[in-house]
Amino acid sequence: MKIVDSGDRPSGLKTGGPIRNIMKKFHEQTYPVTILVNLVDQDGENWLDEIKGLNVGHALYRAKINWPALDAEFVKITKDKRIGKVNSDNPYF
Fold first, then answer.
1. 51-68 pLDDT, tens per residue?
2. Distance from CA of residue 63 to its chain's centroid?
3. From CA 49, how far away is CA 70, in angstroms rounded?
């Protein structure tokens, strides 16, 4: 399993990668929730990426928009600014 670095897309992918030109870098985004997603390509290779959003559903939606050729699966919440840092596997936390 590989971790997607900020601004990079997994090498060797025929399609995929962020399709939107995001104006702010990851650490400049002010969304309150950060989740970890598992991205699976057509060859079954896994990638991990952190995505920010208004809530878990919004962050997962943004992951699917950013990586349309990959399957995005929720792994866990890594931070929620409304309640502080968390480590939860529950998507409805």
1. 999 999 999 999 999 899
2. 5
3. 12
